[in-house]
């Protein structure tokens, strides 16, 4: 068949191919038909009312025919992955969720009274976060080289580079760049922070440290593959939800018996509190912690259930409802508001600082010298607060 016009092409496809009309492309699907149907394999369910396609009840990211769900569940890959996940000796489902010893009464709140109380509380605590914006020469040199190698110019290193450089300097200034140390990066993503930390240590002739990279997602183009002089046992990537991670059992499984330093750049919302719960779930094991360096963010995603220091707010008369309002207002600091921007940002900043101060108080009770610093200018990132904790 010789087709000479677009209109003829559409008619031709309609007569021989799938009858599903794609509105976005203003044409019919060109795929081959399923035998005995007017639609292709992809659109057979969408075009026919005879069979319904639904989300898999184990993993809603994929769909199945409703009448095949029962047989699908027996062979679904998610079930296999879940079984493998739970078989890991260091996975204990929900082990880092906080257990509420008592159910506290929840009261309705007056937003204006809550805001007034927060301002007074912040003033009483005299919360002041100093600027400690540092640069690591070796890291900056590496970043410059990586930027040149990145042909697309969209690596994000112009934004993330200064943050990583400053974090490494803070770690170094506290004497925690050590060849015998273990570095655990929570929420590691592709592990750019650990990669650059590893390279800086090599430049300082510090060889032999180990990196444990923890994230609940799997990633392509993982940065640990680019470690210079990488040898087996340098880096361990652990796919795990922090909620389920037993750090003590992980060290046993990896056959590691050393002290360690915790690092993370932008550990989102409640993940910071789950990490702190994970670190101090076993107080004997927590004695191995040398230091904690966490760049904080996404305070609007903190939850009452897992916040590490509920007592900090309860003592002030703020219950679950009030806490959730504080978290909601904390997100205002980084949101672009067209009306009353300055006032909302100031209140958001105050709420962020109160939430972080509660974390600092928690770490102090655990025997650490803990404080907050602004480690990069706000022009680089509004989420520029670094939590630092070291042994007394």
What attributes does this structure have?
392 residues; alpha/beta; 13 helices; 15% strand; disordered N terminus
Kindly describe this structure.
It is built from 13 helices and eleven strands. By secondary structure, it is an alpha/beta fold. It has helices at 6-16, 44-47, 69-75, 77-87, 111-125, 137-149, 157-173, 192-203, 247-254, 270-279, 310-314, 320-330, 341-365; strands spanning 21-22, 27-28, 53-55, 63-65, 182-186, 210-215, 235-239, 260-268, 289-297, 368-374, 385-391. The termini are far apart. The longest helix is centred in the last third of the chain and has 25 residues, at 341-365. The strands form three sheets. A seven-stranded mixed sheet has the order 7-6-5-8-9-11-10, with helices on both faces. Strands 1-2 form a two-stranded antiparallel sheet. A two-stranded antiparallel ribbon has the order 3-4.
Distance between the termini: 83 Å
Main sheet summary: 7 strands, mixed
- Share of helix among residues? 25-40%
Average pLDDT figure:
86
Strand order of the largest sheet: 7-6-5-8-9-11-10
Shape: globular
């Amino acid at each position: 068949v010789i087709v000479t016009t677009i209109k003829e092409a559409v008619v031709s496809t309609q007569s021989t191919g799938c009858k599903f009309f794609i509105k976005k492309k203003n044409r019919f699907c060109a795929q081959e038909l399923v035998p005995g149907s007017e639609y292709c394999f992809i659109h057979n369910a969408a075009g026919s009312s005879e069979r319904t396609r639904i989300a898999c009840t184990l993993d809603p990211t994929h769909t199945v025919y409703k009448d095949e769900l029962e047989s699908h569940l027996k062979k679904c890959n998610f079930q296999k992955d879940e079984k493998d996940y739970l078989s890991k000796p260091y996975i204990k489902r929900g082990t880092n969720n906080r257990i509420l010893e008592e159910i506290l009464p929840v009261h309705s709140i007056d937003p204006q009274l809550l805001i007034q109380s927060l301002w007074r509380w912040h003033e009483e605590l005299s919360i002041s976060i100093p600027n400690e914006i540092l640069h690591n020469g070796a890291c900056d040199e590496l970043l410059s080289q990586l930027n040149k190698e990145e042909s697309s110019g969209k690596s994000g290193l112009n934004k993330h580079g200064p943050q990583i450089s400053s974090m490494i300097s803070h770690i170094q200034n506290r004497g925690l760049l050590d060849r015998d140390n273990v570095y655990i990066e929570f929420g590691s993503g592709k592990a750019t922070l650990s990669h650059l930390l590893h390279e800086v240590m090599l430049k300082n002739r510090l060889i032999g440290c180990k990196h444990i990279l923890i994230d609940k997602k799997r990633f392509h183009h993982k940065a640990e593959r680019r470690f210079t002089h990488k040898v087996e046992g340098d880096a361990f990537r652990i796919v795990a939800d922090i909620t389920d991670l037993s750090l003590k059992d992980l060290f046993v499984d990896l056959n590691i018996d050393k002290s360690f330093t915790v690092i993370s750049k932008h550990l989102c919302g409640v993940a910071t509190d789950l990490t702190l719960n994970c670190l101090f779930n076993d107080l004997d094991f927590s004695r191995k912690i040398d230091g904690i360096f966490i760049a904080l963010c996404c305070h609007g995603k903190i939850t009452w259930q897992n916040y590490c220091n509920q007592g900090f707010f309860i003592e002030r008369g703020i219950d679950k409802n009030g806490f959730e309002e504080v978290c909601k207002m904390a997100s205002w600091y980084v949101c672009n508001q067209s009306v009353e921007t300055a006032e909302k940002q100031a209140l958001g900043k105050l709420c962020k600082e109160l939430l972080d101060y509660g974390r600092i108080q928690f770490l102090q009770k655990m025997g650490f010298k803990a404080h907050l610093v602004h480690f990069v200018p706000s022009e680089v990132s509004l989420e520029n607060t670094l939590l630092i904790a070291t042994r007394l």
